[in-house]
Amino acid sequence: MLIDKSVNSASSQQSPAEHRLSSTLVTTTSHQQSRSENLETGDLDHSQSSQSPAKPSWLKWKWLIFILPPIVIALGGPVGLGSKLMELLPSGSAVKPLTQAVERKTVATSITANGTVKAHRSINLSPKTAGIIKTLLVKEGDRVKQDEVVAVMDDSNLRGQLVQYQGQLLQQRANLQQLQAGNRPQDIAKAEAQLAEAEANLQQLQAGNRPQDIAKAEAQLAEAKANLQQLQAGNRPQEIAQATAKLQQVQATLKQREGDWQRYQQLYKSGAISGQILEQKRADRDVAQNQVVEAQQVLALQKAGTRPEQIAQAQAKVAQQAEALSLIKAGARKEEIAQAKAKVEQQVQAVAVLKAGTRKEEIDQAIAQVQAAQGSLKTIQNQIEETKVLAPFNGIVLEKYADVGAFVSPSMAGGGGASASSSSILMLTSVRQQVVVNLSESQIAKVKLGQSVAIKADAFPGEKFTGKVEQIAPQAKVTQNVTSVEVRVSIDSATATKLAAGMNVEADFAVGQLENAIFVPNAAVVKQAEGAGVYVLGEGNKSVFRQIQTGVTVGKQTEVKSGLQGNEQVLLSPPAEQKSGGGISLPRPSQ
Protein backbone atom coordinates (compact mmCIF):
# COMPACT_ATOMS: atom_id res chain seq x y z
CA MET A 1 0.00 0.00 0.00
CA LEU A 2 1.14 3.53 -0.77
CA ILE A 3 -0.40 5.03 2.46
CA ASP A 4 1.22 4.35 5.84
CA LYS A 5 -0.76 2.60 8.60
CA SER A 6 -0.81 5.83 10.63
CA VAL A 7 -3.66 6.96 8.46
CA ASN A 8 -5.90 4.44 10.22
CA SER A 9 -5.16 5.88 13.67
CA ALA A 10 -6.15 9.33 12.59
CA SER A 11 -9.49 8.12 11.36
CA SER A 12 -10.79 7.56 14.89
CA GLN A 13 -11.03 11.33 15.51
CA GLN A 14 -13.02 12.09 12.36
CA SER A 15 -16.69 12.78 11.79
CA PRO A 16 -18.78 10.02 10.19
CA ALA A 17 -18.69 11.70 6.81
CA GLU A 18 -14.97 12.30 7.05
CA HIS A 19 -14.46 8.74 8.20
CA ARG A 20 -16.34 7.38 5.19
CA LEU A 21 -14.27 9.56 2.83
CA SER A 22 -11.06 8.50 4.48
CA SER A 23 -11.99 4.84 4.18
CA THR A 24 -12.95 5.30 0.57
CA LEU A 25 -9.67 7.06 -0.32
CA VAL A 26 -7.56 4.52 1.51
CA THR A 27 -9.33 1.63 -0.15
CA THR A 28 -9.06 3.21 -3.58
CA THR A 29 -5.42 4.11 -3.09
CA SER A 30 -4.67 0.60 -1.85
CA HIS A 31 -6.39 -0.90 -4.87
CA GLN A 32 -4.45 1.31 -7.29
CA GLN A 33 -1.14 0.59 -5.55
CA SER A 34 -1.76 -3.17 -5.70
CA ARG A 35 -2.63 -2.95 -9.40
CA SER A 36 0.49 -0.87 -10.20
CA GLU A 37 2.76 -3.34 -8.45
CA ASN A 38 1.23 -6.22 -10.34
CA LEU A 39 1.73 -4.45 -13.68
CA GLU A 40 5.42 -3.82 -13.01
CA THR A 41 6.23 -7.22 -11.55
CA GLY A 42 4.24 -9.15 -14.13
CA ASP A 43 2.19 -10.95 -11.43
CA LEU A 44 -1.18 -10.20 -12.93
CA ASP A 45 -3.63 -13.07 -13.12
CA HIS A 46 -3.53 -13.54 -16.90
CA SER A 47 -6.11 -16.26 -16.85
CA GLN A 48 -8.64 -13.95 -15.27
CA SER A 49 -7.87 -11.06 -17.57
CA SER A 50 -8.04 -13.26 -20.60
CA GLN A 51 -11.41 -14.68 -19.65
CA SER A 52 -13.28 -11.36 -19.28
CA PRO A 53 -12.91 -8.40 -21.64
CA ALA A 54 -11.22 -5.27 -20.28
CA LYS A 55 -13.62 -2.51 -19.16
CA PRO A 56 -13.01 1.20 -19.77
CA SER A 57 -11.38 2.80 -16.72
CA TRP A 58 -14.14 5.39 -16.28
CA LEU A 59 -16.71 2.59 -15.76
CA LYS A 60 -14.77 1.36 -12.72
CA TRP A 61 -15.11 4.74 -11.04
CA LYS A 62 -18.68 5.60 -12.06
CA TRP A 63 -19.94 5.14 -8.46
CA LEU A 64 -17.99 8.25 -7.43
CA ILE A 65 -20.38 10.33 -9.53
CA PHE A 66 -23.16 9.60 -7.05
CA ILE A 67 -21.29 9.91 -3.71
CA LEU A 68 -18.82 12.74 -4.30
CA PRO A 69 -21.28 15.68 -4.61
CA PRO A 70 -22.86 15.27 -1.13
CA ILE A 71 -19.44 14.69 0.43
CA VAL A 72 -17.99 17.78 -1.18
CA ILE A 73 -20.97 19.86 0.03
CA ALA A 74 -20.72 18.44 3.56
CA LEU A 75 -17.04 19.34 3.80
CA GLY A 76 -17.50 22.88 2.62
CA GLY A 77 -16.77 22.65 -1.12
CA PRO A 78 -13.61 21.71 -3.06
CA VAL A 79 -11.33 23.79 -0.88
CA GLY A 80 -12.55 22.13 2.26
CA LEU A 81 -12.16 18.72 0.63
CA GLY A 82 -8.55 19.43 -0.21
CA SER A 83 -7.84 20.56 3.32
CA LYS A 84 -9.41 17.47 4.81
CA LEU A 85 -7.36 15.23 2.49
CA MET A 86 -4.13 16.87 3.56
CA GLU A 87 -5.11 16.54 7.21
CA LEU A 88 -5.65 12.82 6.73
CA LEU A 89 -2.03 12.33 5.63
CA PRO A 90 0.38 12.15 8.60
CA SER A 91 3.24 14.64 8.64
CA GLY A 92 6.63 13.30 7.50
CA SER A 93 5.32 9.87 6.55
CA ALA A 94 7.46 8.06 3.94
CA VAL A 95 5.76 6.66 0.83
CA LYS A 96 7.11 3.46 -0.62
CA PRO A 97 8.00 3.73 -4.33
CA LEU A 98 7.07 0.94 -6.80
CA THR A 99 9.39 -2.03 -6.19
CA GLN A 100 9.87 -5.57 -7.39
CA ALA A 101 11.66 -8.48 -5.86
CA VAL A 102 14.87 -9.71 -7.44
CA GLU A 103 14.20 -12.98 -9.26
CA ARG A 104 16.33 -16.10 -9.50
CA LYS A 105 15.59 -18.41 -12.43
CA THR A 106 17.04 -20.56 -15.16
CA VAL A 107 16.64 -19.10 -18.65
CA ALA A 108 17.68 -20.10 -22.14
CA THR A 109 20.13 -17.71 -23.77
CA SER A 110 20.33 -16.90 -27.44
CA ILE A 111 22.02 -14.66 -29.99
CA THR A 112 19.80 -12.67 -32.31
CA ALA A 113 21.04 -11.28 -35.62
CA ASN A 114 19.50 -9.94 -38.80
CA GLY A 115 20.13 -11.82 -42.01
CA THR A 116 19.08 -12.31 -45.60
CA VAL A 117 17.58 -15.31 -47.38
CA LYS A 118 19.79 -16.52 -50.21
CA ALA A 119 19.77 -19.51 -52.52
CA HIS A 120 21.93 -22.37 -51.29
CA ARG A 121 23.62 -22.51 -54.68
CA SER A 122 23.66 -20.00 -57.52
CA ILE A 123 25.62 -20.30 -60.76
CA ASN A 124 25.81 -18.82 -64.24
CA LEU A 125 25.55 -21.68 -66.73
CA SER A 126 28.03 -21.45 -69.62
CA PRO A 127 29.20 -23.90 -72.30
CA LYS A 128 32.57 -25.61 -71.86
CA THR A 129 33.74 -24.16 -75.15
CA ALA A 130 32.81 -20.92 -76.87
CA GLY A 131 30.18 -21.21 -79.56
CA ILE A 132 26.73 -20.32 -80.87
CA ILE A 133 23.54 -21.40 -79.10
CA LYS A 134 21.64 -23.82 -81.35
CA THR A 135 18.72 -24.68 -79.07
CA LEU A 136 17.45 -23.19 -75.77
CA LEU A 137 15.10 -25.55 -73.93
CA VAL A 138 14.11 -23.50 -70.84
CA LYS A 139 12.79 -20.07 -69.92
CA GLU A 140 12.88 -17.91 -66.82
CA GLY A 141 11.01 -19.45 -63.90
CA ASP A 142 11.28 -23.05 -65.15
CA ARG A 143 12.29 -25.72 -62.65
CA VAL A 144 14.96 -28.12 -63.86
CA LYS A 145 16.42 -31.35 -62.52
CA GLN A 146 20.06 -32.26 -62.15
CA ASP A 147 21.69 -33.30 -65.48
CA GLU A 148 18.71 -32.02 -67.46
CA VAL A 149 19.67 -30.49 -70.85
CA VAL A 150 18.88 -26.76 -70.80
CA ALA A 151 20.66 -25.68 -74.01
CA VAL A 152 22.53 -27.16 -77.00
CA MET A 153 25.44 -25.45 -78.77
CA ASP A 154 26.13 -25.64 -82.51
CA ASP A 155 28.21 -28.79 -83.31
CA SER A 156 28.34 -28.77 -87.13
CA ASN A 157 32.17 -28.47 -87.23
CA LEU A 158 32.57 -31.25 -84.71
CA ARG A 159 30.31 -33.57 -86.72
CA GLY A 160 32.70 -33.38 -89.70
CA GLN A 161 35.65 -34.24 -87.48
CA LEU A 162 33.66 -37.13 -86.03
CA VAL A 163 33.30 -38.73 -89.49
CA GLN A 164 37.02 -38.25 -90.14
CA TYR A 165 38.08 -39.94 -86.89
CA GLN A 166 35.62 -42.78 -87.41
CA GLY A 167 37.26 -43.49 -90.80
CA GLN A 168 40.73 -43.46 -89.28
CA LEU A 169 39.67 -45.95 -86.64
CA LEU A 170 38.22 -48.31 -89.26
CA GLN A 171 41.46 -48.10 -91.25
CA GLN A 172 43.63 -48.89 -88.22
CA ARG A 173 41.41 -51.79 -87.23
CA ALA A 174 41.59 -53.28 -90.75
CA ASN A 175 45.38 -53.02 -90.69
CA LEU A 176 45.49 -54.78 -87.33
CA GLN A 177 43.22 -57.55 -88.54
CA GLN A 178 45.40 -58.04 -91.63
CA LEU A 179 48.54 -58.36 -89.52
CA GLN A 180 46.87 -60.76 -87.10
CA ALA A 181 45.53 -62.94 -89.96
CA GLY A 182 49.00 -63.33 -91.57
CA ASN A 183 49.98 -63.34 -95.33
CA ARG A 184 47.74 -64.92 -97.96
CA PRO A 185 49.04 -67.79 -100.15
CA GLN A 186 48.64 -65.52 -103.20
CA ASP A 187 51.09 -63.00 -101.69
CA ILE A 188 53.64 -65.72 -101.07
CA ALA A 189 53.26 -67.10 -104.62
CA LYS A 190 53.74 -63.63 -106.12
CA ALA A 191 56.91 -63.08 -104.10
CA GLU A 192 58.28 -66.45 -105.22
CA ALA A 193 57.61 -65.56 -108.87
CA GLN A 194 59.49 -62.28 -108.47
CA LEU A 195 62.38 -64.24 -106.94
CA ALA A 196 62.48 -66.64 -109.92
CA GLU A 197 62.55 -63.72 -112.37
CA ALA A 198 65.44 -62.11 -110.51
CA GLU A 199 67.40 -65.36 -110.50
CA ALA A 200 66.86 -65.88 -114.26
CA ASN A 201 68.06 -62.35 -115.00
CA LEU A 202 71.17 -62.97 -112.93
CA GLN A 203 71.91 -66.20 -114.74
CA GLN A 204 71.51 -64.47 -118.13
CA LEU A 205 73.92 -61.73 -117.17
CA GLN A 206 76.44 -64.22 -115.90
CA ALA A 207 76.21 -66.38 -119.10
CA GLY A 208 76.67 -63.46 -121.50
CA ASN A 209 74.65 -62.44 -124.64
CA ARG A 210 73.54 -64.99 -127.22
CA PRO A 211 74.36 -64.67 -130.99
CA GLN A 212 70.69 -64.07 -131.68
CA ASP A 213 70.69 -60.99 -129.46
CA ILE A 214 73.74 -59.61 -131.28
CA ALA A 215 72.16 -60.23 -134.73
CA LYS A 216 68.94 -58.52 -133.61
CA ALA A 217 70.84 -55.48 -132.42
CA GLU A 218 72.78 -55.25 -135.69
CA ALA A 219 69.53 -55.37 -137.72
CA GLN A 220 68.01 -52.55 -135.63
CA LEU A 221 71.13 -50.43 -136.23
CA ALA A 222 70.99 -51.01 -140.01
CA GLU A 223 67.33 -49.99 -140.09
CA ALA A 224 68.05 -46.81 -138.25
CA LYS A 225 70.87 -45.91 -140.62
CA ALA A 226 68.69 -46.50 -143.72
CA ASN A 227 65.98 -44.25 -142.37
CA LEU A 228 68.53 -41.53 -141.72
CA GLN A 229 69.89 -41.74 -145.27
CA GLN A 230 66.38 -41.44 -146.74
CA LEU A 231 65.66 -38.36 -144.73
CA GLN A 232 68.96 -36.75 -145.68
CA ALA A 233 68.40 -37.44 -149.45
CA GLY A 234 64.99 -35.73 -149.46
CA ASN A 235 61.89 -36.63 -151.53
CA ARG A 236 62.23 -38.19 -154.97
CA PRO A 237 60.73 -36.48 -158.15
CA GLN A 238 58.31 -39.36 -158.48
CA GLU A 239 56.83 -38.59 -155.01
CA ILE A 240 56.44 -34.89 -155.91
CA ALA A 241 54.78 -35.82 -159.25
CA GLN A 242 52.47 -38.19 -157.45
CA ALA A 243 51.47 -35.48 -154.98
CA THR A 244 50.87 -33.04 -157.86
CA ALA A 245 48.63 -35.52 -159.68
CA LYS A 246 46.66 -36.13 -156.50
CA LEU A 247 46.07 -32.40 -156.09
CA GLN A 248 44.85 -32.02 -159.65
CA GLN A 249 42.47 -34.91 -159.22
CA VAL A 250 40.77 -33.50 -156.13
CA GLN A 251 40.60 -30.05 -157.70
CA ALA A 252 38.65 -31.50 -160.66
CA THR A 253 36.30 -33.24 -158.29
CA LEU A 254 35.75 -30.02 -156.40
CA LYS A 255 34.94 -28.15 -159.62
CA GLN A 256 32.37 -30.77 -160.56
CA ARG A 257 30.67 -30.75 -157.19
CA GLU A 258 30.63 -26.95 -157.10
CA GLY A 259 28.71 -27.00 -160.41
CA ASP A 260 26.28 -29.57 -159.07
CA TRP A 261 25.67 -27.39 -156.03
CA GLN A 262 24.86 -24.38 -158.20
CA ARG A 263 22.49 -26.33 -160.39
CA TYR A 264 20.64 -27.97 -157.48
CA GLN A 265 20.11 -24.59 -155.89
CA GLN A 266 18.12 -23.52 -158.97
CA LEU A 267 16.13 -26.75 -158.89
CA TYR A 268 15.31 -26.23 -155.21
CA LYS A 269 14.15 -22.70 -155.85
CA SER A 270 11.82 -23.94 -158.59
CA GLY A 271 10.50 -26.69 -156.29
CA ALA A 272 11.82 -29.58 -158.35
CA ILE A 273 13.84 -31.12 -155.48
CA SER A 274 13.55 -31.24 -151.71
CA GLY A 275 15.75 -29.42 -149.24
CA GLN A 276 17.29 -32.71 -148.10
CA ILE A 277 18.77 -33.35 -151.58
CA LEU A 278 20.13 -29.82 -151.70
CA GLU A 279 21.84 -30.29 -148.31
CA GLN A 280 23.46 -33.54 -149.52
CA LYS A 281 24.95 -31.74 -152.55
CA ARG A 282 26.36 -29.04 -150.32
CA ALA A 283 27.98 -31.67 -148.07
CA ASP A 284 29.59 -33.28 -151.14
CA ARG A 285 31.03 -29.95 -152.18
CA ASP A 286 32.48 -29.36 -148.64
CA VAL A 287 34.20 -32.77 -148.66
CA ALA A 288 35.83 -31.96 -152.03
CA GLN A 289 37.08 -28.64 -150.63
CA ASN A 290 38.72 -30.40 -147.64
CA GLN A 291 40.42 -32.92 -149.97
CA VAL A 292 41.91 -30.10 -152.04
CA VAL A 293 43.34 -28.43 -148.93
CA GLU A 294 44.87 -31.73 -147.73
CA ALA A 295 46.46 -32.46 -151.18
CA GLN A 296 47.93 -28.95 -151.28
CA GLN A 297 49.58 -29.48 -147.86
CA VAL A 298 51.07 -32.86 -148.92
CA LEU A 299 52.51 -31.36 -152.09
CA ALA A 300 54.02 -28.49 -150.14
CA LEU A 301 55.73 -30.90 -147.75
CA GLN A 302 57.12 -32.96 -150.65
CA LYS A 303 58.59 -29.90 -152.29
CA ALA A 304 60.04 -28.55 -148.96
CA GLY A 305 61.90 -31.79 -148.21
CA THR A 306 62.77 -33.31 -144.75
CA ARG A 307 62.76 -31.05 -141.70
CA PRO A 308 66.00 -30.64 -139.65
CA GLU A 309 64.43 -31.99 -136.48
CA GLN A 310 63.46 -35.21 -138.25
CA ILE A 311 67.02 -35.69 -139.38
CA ALA A 312 68.31 -34.99 -135.82
CA GLN A 313 65.89 -37.51 -134.39
CA ALA A 314 66.98 -40.17 -136.90
CA GLN A 315 70.64 -39.51 -136.06
CA ALA A 316 69.94 -39.99 -132.33
CA LYS A 317 68.20 -43.27 -133.06
CA VAL A 318 71.29 -44.51 -135.01
CA ALA A 319 73.59 -43.60 -132.13
CA GLN A 320 71.34 -45.37 -129.61
CA GLN A 321 71.27 -48.58 -131.65
CA ALA A 322 75.02 -48.51 -132.14
CA GLU A 323 75.59 -48.21 -128.38
CA ALA A 324 73.19 -51.06 -127.68
CA LEU A 325 75.03 -53.30 -130.15
CA SER A 326 78.32 -52.41 -128.54
CA LEU A 327 77.03 -53.32 -125.06
CA ILE A 328 75.66 -56.62 -126.23
CA LYS A 329 78.94 -57.54 -127.87
CA ALA A 330 80.89 -56.48 -124.75
CA GLY A 331 78.75 -58.64 -122.42
CA ALA A 332 77.37 -57.84 -118.90
CA ARG A 333 79.31 -55.45 -116.69
CA LYS A 334 80.35 -56.36 -113.14
CA GLU A 335 78.06 -53.75 -111.59
CA GLU A 336 75.07 -55.11 -113.51
CA ILE A 337 75.80 -58.61 -112.23
CA ALA A 338 76.17 -57.23 -108.66
CA GLN A 339 72.87 -55.37 -108.95
CA ALA A 340 71.16 -58.53 -110.18
CA LYS A 341 72.57 -60.50 -107.24
CA ALA A 342 71.25 -57.86 -104.80
CA LYS A 343 67.84 -58.10 -106.39
CA VAL A 344 67.84 -61.87 -105.93
CA GLU A 345 68.77 -61.54 -102.23
CA GLN A 346 66.03 -58.96 -101.70
CA GLN A 347 63.41 -61.24 -103.18
CA VAL A 348 64.67 -64.18 -101.09
CA GLN A 349 64.18 -62.14 -97.90
CA ALA A 350 60.75 -60.99 -99.03
CA VAL A 351 59.62 -64.59 -99.55
CA ALA A 352 61.03 -65.58 -96.15
CA VAL A 353 59.20 -62.71 -94.40
CA LEU A 354 55.90 -63.63 -96.01
CA LYS A 355 56.28 -67.26 -95.05
CA ALA A 356 57.29 -66.41 -91.47
CA GLY A 357 54.18 -64.25 -90.90
CA THR A 358 53.74 -60.91 -89.00
CA ARG A 359 56.13 -60.11 -86.16
CA LYS A 360 54.81 -59.43 -82.63
CA GLU A 361 56.20 -55.89 -82.64
CA GLU A 362 54.22 -55.05 -85.76
CA ILE A 363 51.03 -56.33 -84.18
CA ASP A 364 51.74 -54.32 -81.00
CA GLN A 365 52.34 -51.22 -83.07
CA ALA A 366 49.09 -51.77 -84.95
CA ILE A 367 47.24 -52.20 -81.62
CA ALA A 368 48.72 -48.91 -80.39
CA GLN A 369 47.57 -47.17 -83.55
CA VAL A 370 44.05 -48.54 -83.05
CA GLN A 371 44.03 -47.28 -79.45
CA ALA A 372 45.23 -43.84 -80.55
CA ALA A 373 42.46 -43.69 -83.13
CA GLN A 374 39.93 -44.73 -80.48
CA GLY A 375 41.19 -41.96 -78.19
CA SER A 376 40.86 -39.33 -80.89
CA LEU A 377 37.34 -40.54 -81.67
CA LYS A 378 36.39 -40.52 -77.99
CA THR A 379 37.70 -36.98 -77.62
CA ILE A 380 35.60 -35.64 -80.46
CA GLN A 381 32.56 -37.57 -79.17
CA ASN A 382 33.03 -35.96 -75.74
CA GLN A 383 33.30 -32.54 -77.35
CA ILE A 384 30.01 -33.15 -79.15
CA GLU A 385 28.42 -34.33 -75.92
CA GLU A 386 29.73 -31.21 -74.15
CA THR A 387 27.77 -29.02 -76.56
CA LYS A 388 24.80 -30.00 -74.37
CA VAL A 389 24.62 -27.62 -71.41
CA LEU A 390 23.35 -29.56 -68.37
CA ALA A 391 21.91 -28.34 -65.08
CA PRO A 392 24.44 -29.20 -62.33
CA PHE A 393 21.74 -29.41 -59.64
CA ASN A 394 17.98 -29.20 -59.10
CA GLY A 395 17.00 -25.57 -59.35
CA ILE A 396 15.05 -22.71 -60.89
CA VAL A 397 16.02 -20.64 -63.94
CA LEU A 398 16.27 -17.21 -62.31
CA GLU A 399 17.42 -15.18 -65.32
CA LYS A 400 18.13 -15.77 -69.03
CA TYR A 401 21.09 -13.89 -70.55
CA ALA A 402 21.21 -15.16 -74.17
CA ASP A 403 18.92 -16.40 -76.94
CA VAL A 404 19.28 -18.85 -79.83
CA GLY A 405 21.98 -17.68 -82.25
CA ALA A 406 23.96 -15.76 -79.62
CA PHE A 407 27.70 -16.35 -79.20
CA VAL A 408 28.73 -17.19 -75.64
CA SER A 409 32.01 -18.23 -74.08
CA PRO A 410 32.91 -20.12 -70.88
CA SER A 411 32.62 -18.23 -67.60
CA MET A 412 33.40 -18.91 -63.94
CA ALA A 413 31.05 -16.22 -62.61
CA GLY A 414 28.76 -17.17 -59.72
CA GLY A 415 26.13 -14.47 -60.12
CA GLY A 416 24.68 -11.90 -62.44
CA GLY A 417 26.82 -9.09 -63.77
CA ALA A 418 27.67 -6.97 -66.75
CA SER A 419 29.67 -9.77 -68.35
CA ALA A 420 27.00 -12.43 -67.82
CA SER A 421 25.14 -11.50 -71.02
CA SER A 422 28.19 -12.32 -73.18
CA SER A 423 29.68 -15.22 -71.24
CA SER A 424 26.67 -17.09 -69.85
CA ILE A 425 23.40 -18.55 -71.06
CA LEU A 426 21.32 -18.32 -67.88
CA MET A 427 21.47 -18.08 -64.09
CA LEU A 428 20.39 -21.17 -62.13
CA THR A 429 19.62 -21.08 -58.40
CA SER A 430 18.88 -24.03 -56.18
CA VAL A 431 15.41 -24.64 -54.81
CA ARG A 432 16.95 -25.04 -51.39
CA GLN A 433 17.28 -21.73 -49.48
CA GLN A 434 19.55 -20.61 -46.66
CA VAL A 435 19.91 -17.64 -44.32
CA VAL A 436 23.15 -15.67 -44.26
CA VAL A 437 23.96 -13.63 -41.14
CA ASN A 438 27.08 -11.90 -39.82
CA LEU A 439 28.01 -12.40 -36.17
CA SER A 440 30.56 -10.49 -34.12
CA GLU A 441 33.78 -11.97 -32.80
CA SER A 442 32.34 -12.34 -29.31
CA GLN A 443 29.24 -14.11 -30.58
CA ILE A 444 30.80 -16.55 -33.04
CA ALA A 445 32.49 -18.60 -30.31
CA LYS A 446 29.06 -19.60 -29.00
CA VAL A 447 27.79 -20.88 -32.35
CA LYS A 448 28.45 -24.45 -33.47
CA LEU A 449 27.73 -26.45 -36.61
CA GLY A 450 24.38 -28.22 -36.49
CA GLN A 451 23.03 -25.79 -33.87
CA SER A 452 19.29 -25.11 -34.05
CA VAL A 453 18.17 -21.66 -35.21
CA ALA A 454 14.74 -20.02 -34.97
CA ILE A 455 13.95 -17.73 -37.90
CA LYS A 456 11.43 -14.91 -38.17
CA ALA A 457 10.61 -13.19 -41.46
CA ASP A 458 9.18 -9.71 -41.86
CA ALA A 459 7.03 -11.04 -44.69
CA PHE A 460 5.35 -13.59 -42.38
CA PRO A 461 4.72 -11.89 -39.01
CA GLY A 462 3.92 -14.28 -36.21
CA GLU A 463 5.19 -17.31 -38.13
CA LYS A 464 8.39 -19.08 -37.11
CA PHE A 465 10.76 -21.06 -39.29
CA THR A 466 13.49 -23.43 -38.18
CA GLY A 467 16.95 -24.24 -39.43
CA LYS A 468 20.43 -25.40 -38.48
CA VAL A 469 23.89 -23.89 -38.69
CA GLU A 470 25.35 -25.35 -41.87
CA GLN A 471 28.54 -23.38 -42.40
CA ILE A 472 30.75 -21.00 -40.43
CA ALA A 473 33.18 -18.97 -42.53
CA PRO A 474 36.80 -19.98 -41.81
CA GLN A 475 37.93 -16.36 -42.09
CA ALA A 476 36.51 -13.18 -40.61
CA LYS A 477 35.91 -10.06 -42.68
CA VAL A 478 36.26 -6.39 -41.78
CA THR A 479 33.67 -3.89 -43.01
CA GLN A 480 33.96 -0.26 -41.90
CA ASN A 481 36.32 -1.27 -39.08
CA VAL A 482 33.82 -3.85 -37.80
CA THR A 483 34.97 -7.48 -37.72
CA SER A 484 32.35 -10.13 -38.35
CA VAL A 485 32.09 -13.78 -39.35
CA GLU A 486 29.59 -15.04 -41.91
CA VAL A 487 27.30 -17.87 -40.81
CA ARG A 488 25.04 -19.80 -43.18
CA VAL A 489 21.88 -21.45 -41.83
CA SER A 490 20.02 -24.12 -43.77
CA ILE A 491 16.23 -23.79 -43.65
CA ASP A 492 14.15 -26.89 -42.96
CA SER A 493 12.67 -28.11 -46.23
CA ALA A 494 9.15 -28.26 -44.80
CA THR A 495 8.94 -24.46 -44.53
CA ALA A 496 11.69 -23.25 -46.87
CA THR A 497 9.38 -22.87 -49.87
CA LYS A 498 7.72 -19.81 -48.34
CA LEU A 499 10.94 -17.82 -48.02
CA ALA A 500 12.23 -16.22 -51.19
CA ALA A 501 15.76 -15.09 -51.90
CA GLY A 502 16.35 -11.51 -50.80
CA MET A 503 13.90 -11.51 -47.87
CA ASN A 504 15.04 -9.97 -44.58
CA VAL A 505 14.84 -12.27 -41.56
CA GLU A 506 15.83 -12.40 -37.90
CA ALA A 507 17.82 -15.44 -36.78
CA ASP A 508 17.78 -16.53 -33.13
CA PHE A 509 20.66 -18.88 -32.17
CA ALA A 510 20.04 -20.92 -29.02
CA VAL A 511 23.49 -20.88 -27.36
CA GLY A 512 22.72 -22.40 -23.93
CA GLN A 513 21.05 -21.50 -20.60
CA LEU A 514 21.82 -19.64 -17.37
CA GLU A 515 21.32 -21.72 -14.22
CA ASN A 516 19.88 -20.00 -11.09
CA ALA A 517 20.74 -16.53 -12.43
CA ILE A 518 19.65 -13.25 -10.81
CA PHE A 519 17.41 -11.04 -12.97
CA VAL A 520 16.04 -7.54 -12.41
CA PRO A 521 13.65 -5.51 -14.57
CA ASN A 522 15.30 -3.47 -17.29
CA ALA A 523 13.61 -0.35 -15.88
CA ALA A 524 15.43 -0.78 -12.56
CA VAL A 525 18.92 -0.59 -14.08
CA VAL A 526 20.48 2.88 -13.73
CA LYS A 527 23.53 4.07 -15.65
CA GLN A 528 25.87 6.30 -13.58
CA ALA A 529 29.44 7.49 -13.90
CA GLU A 530 30.78 4.70 -11.71
CA GLY A 531 28.85 2.12 -13.75
CA ALA A 532 25.51 0.37 -13.86
CA GLY A 533 23.49 -0.19 -10.71
CA VAL A 534 20.09 -0.45 -9.10
CA TYR A 535 18.31 1.19 -6.15
CA VAL A 536 17.25 -1.33 -3.53
CA LEU A 537 14.77 -0.72 -0.74
CA GLY A 538 16.56 -0.66 2.58
CA GLU A 539 15.56 -0.15 6.21
CA GLY A 540 12.94 2.45 6.79
CA ASN A 541 11.96 2.46 3.17
CA LYS A 542 15.21 4.16 2.31
CA SER A 543 16.68 3.72 -1.21
CA VAL A 544 20.23 2.37 -1.43
CA PHE A 545 22.26 2.39 -4.65
CA ARG A 546 24.02 -0.88 -5.45
CA GLN A 547 26.59 -1.07 -8.24
CA ILE A 548 26.12 -4.25 -10.30
CA GLN A 549 27.73 -6.14 -13.17
CA THR A 550 25.17 -6.86 -15.87
CA GLY A 551 25.01 -9.85 -18.17
CA VAL A 552 22.61 -10.82 -20.91
CA THR A 553 19.23 -9.20 -21.50
CA VAL A 554 16.29 -11.58 -21.86
CA GLY A 555 13.09 -9.80 -22.84
CA LYS A 556 12.32 -7.14 -20.21
CA GLN A 557 14.85 -8.42 -17.69
CA THR A 558 18.62 -8.04 -17.28
CA GLU A 559 20.96 -10.59 -15.73
CA VAL A 560 22.96 -9.43 -12.68
CA LYS A 561 26.28 -11.24 -12.42
CA SER A 562 27.43 -9.50 -9.22
CA GLY A 563 26.25 -6.84 -6.77
CA LEU A 564 23.03 -8.48 -5.52
CA GLN A 565 22.33 -11.44 -3.27
CA GLY A 566 19.00 -12.36 -4.80
CA ASN A 567 16.67 -11.41 -1.91
CA GLU A 568 16.46 -7.65 -2.50
CA GLN A 569 13.60 -5.38 -3.56
CA VAL A 570 14.64 -3.04 -6.39
CA LEU A 571 13.05 0.26 -7.32
CA LEU A 572 11.46 0.27 -10.76
CA SER A 573 12.27 3.98 -11.10
CA PRO A 574 15.11 5.85 -9.35
CA PRO A 575 14.35 8.45 -6.62
CA ALA A 576 14.12 12.08 -7.73
CA GLU A 577 17.33 12.97 -5.89
CA GLN A 578 19.20 10.00 -7.45
CA LYS A 579 21.02 9.58 -4.11
CA SER A 580 21.37 6.64 -1.77
CA GLY A 581 19.58 6.95 1.56
CA GLY A 582 16.82 9.20 0.29
CA GLY A 583 13.20 8.55 1.17
CA ILE A 584 9.98 9.59 -0.53
CA SER A 585 7.31 11.39 1.52
CA LEU A 586 4.37 13.75 0.86
CA PRO A 587 4.71 17.22 2.56
CA ARG A 588 2.01 18.23 5.07
CA PRO A 589 0.24 21.50 4.10
CA SER A 590 0.71 24.50 6.45
CA GLN A 591 -2.14 25.36 8.87
Automatic annotation (TrEMBL):
Keyword list, A-Z: Coiled coil, Membrane, Transmembrane, Transmembrane helix
Annotated YbhG-like alpha-helical hairpin domain residues: 153-209, 215-328
Transmembrane segments: 63-81
Xref: InterPro entries: Beta-barrel_RND_2 (IPR058792), HH_YbhG-like (IPR059052), MdtA-like_C (IPR058627), RND_pump_MFP (IPR006143), UPF0194_transport (IPR050465)
Ranges of compositional bias, category Polar residues: 1-36
A GO term, aspect molecular function: transmembrane transporter activity
Designated name of the protein: RND family efflux transporter, MFP subunit
Domain Multidrug resistance protein MdtA-like C-terminal permuted SH3 span(s) in chain numbering: 516-572
Annotated coiled-coil segments of the chain: 188-298
Chain positions covered by the region annotation Disordered: 1-54, 565-591
Family stated for the protein in its record: Belongs to the membrane fusion protein (MFP) (TC 8.A.1) family.
Residue ranges annotated for the CusB-like beta-barrel domain, each copy included: 435-510
Localization, UniProt: Cell envelope
Gene Ontology, cellular component aspect: cell envelope; membrane
Organism expressing this protein natively: Chamaesiphon minutus (strain ATCC 27169 / PCC 6605)
Main location: other
PANTHER family: EFFLUX SYSTEM COMPONENT YKNX-RELATED (PTHR32347)
